[in-house]
Amino acid sequence: MKKDHMLLLCTQNSARSQMAEAFFKIYGGDLIKVDSAGLEPAGVNPYAVRVMAEIGIDISGQRSKGVKEFLGKASFSHIITVCKKAEGQCPTIFPGVRHIISWPFDDPAAVEGTEEEKLEKFREVRDEIDAHVEDFMAKYRRDETRNNFEKKYCCLLEE
To answer: Choosing from 49, 83, 97, 101, which is the catalytic residue?
Structure first.
């Protein structure tokens, strides 16, 4: 059976989409193929690497990718935007996309303050992403995502 292919889209592909990619690989790598990209890729944020390492997940080998790397080269069943800016600029030119899902998480990199305050925000967003991905994959495993999961999370694209 062919795996559904998901694209996680963010502005810079530096934190939220990188963390989400790692969680999707853990919770659903046996069922889905997942990639992440950014509208303006800027390198993986060291705070994202650090807070993921705190829970035993190594994303230090991941790299920031631009959405243009995938245009015309890959087809996706789902595009999941993990920030408001990406949602508003989400490319809809990928063939075969059945679902566009919006999870507008706060940008932890926008937090100003001490290192501990920044880390706390990264941890908060990491935990929110973890919960969303775990819930999504639990429903996906029950086949709800492919049929009527869009009622909660998706805008079903007209085919």
So the answer is: 83
